[in-house]
Amino acid sequence: MTCKTFATAVGVAVGLTVASGLAQAAPDQPSRNDLKGAVDRYLVDHGDLCVGKFTWPRVVTAQDEAARTNDAVQLPVLERLGLVVSTVVSTPADADTGAQNAPSAKRYSLTDKGRRYYLKKKRITVGAHDRPTEHDADLCLGRLSLDQVVKWSTPEPVHGHLETVVRYTYHIKAADWMDDPQARQVFPVVDRIIRHEDNMLMSVTVRLADGKWQPVLPTM
Known about the structure:
Layout: H1 32-46, E1 48-50, E2 58-60, H2 62-67, H3 70-80, E3 84-90, E4 104-110, H4 112-115, E5 118-126, E6 132-152, E7 156-158, E8 161-174, H5 181-186, H6 188-195, E9 202-209, E10 212-215
Antiparallel strand pairs: 1-6, 2-4, 3-4, 5-6, 6-8, 7-8, 8-9, 9-10
């Protein structure tokens, strides 16, 4: 299998880093099977491919549409696919200018179909500027599972534990409506992950603790 490296950002909290493989496991180094188990455990809890839409309903204003924010671009597509429904609402009048007529906006709510993809699960993910964010739910468009461990970095001590960065390929089970060309267009990161199944490298940091290699999960 040919492995190609691409840079990507995911709500599921996985990053890409440069790592080197080890041909054989030394006593203080993990085996491939050790790392396979650690990555499997990581993906069981953090393998959901989510898009950072934690709270609903979501409001899209005229300013959002002009700026083409993610919600302004993505939510109309989700509405066409039956996952959300919109209603027109009024936004507060401009007190500084004394505006009498409040501008309108669209409020998008999940439909019964959309709620099937709204995963309610408390977790911490790393967002912009490497800042951890704690939330109780997210809209998730697919789920990753392990294909194979490809390589890993030489374990080094970090805060009293040996740590290594594991590079792996994956399988993905995406929502069926992600076959829609426009959905793939407005969720480009998800599209890339789907298109490069089995040959794009993801990574996770694992740590030796109590004699067992375990994934290092984000903390607040």
